[in-house]
């Protein structure tokens, strides 16, 4: 497969890497599906299991892909993710966006929003108490 890498400002060169295709048999269904490394790899290349970061040295990328291939040959059983409701032919080896990522991406902005709202409420309460004290001071005179 061809890929482009940056060789300086306004300079792009083309390099090549081998396209490794891995097929797995999903135990529950018995169907054979193509394995992708993660969601990004699935979006970048629907054909290849892994897309390395493009670099000038195509031999290094080839060695990296061959190491991955040898590792997968040694491990005949690998846990993977698939969606039984979808009729896709793709299965993921690892997930980038699981439930904890979604939880944290919603939790921390919500905490910041609540903290900001709490600061505003405290400022308004301080203003109210200041006016109340001022009025009580006028009544006693």
UniProtKB/TrEMBL annotation:
GO terms for biological process: detection of calcium ion. This is KCNMB2 ball/chain domain-containing protein. It is found in: Membrane. Its main location: membrane. It is a multi-pass membrane protein. Keywords: Glycoprotein, Ion channel, Ion transport, Membrane, Transmembrane, Transmembrane helix, Transport. The lineage of its organism: Eukaryota, Metazoa, Chordata, Craniata, Vertebrata. InterPro entries: K_chnl_Ca-activ_BK_bsu (IPR003930). PANTHER family: CALCIUM-ACTIVATED POTASSIUM CHANNEL SUBUNIT BETA, CALCIUM-ACTIVATED POTASSIUM CHANNEL SUBUNIT BETA-2. One of its GO terms (molecular function) is potassium channel regulator activity. The chain crosses the membrane at residues 101-123. GO terms for cellular component: voltage-gated potassium channel complex.
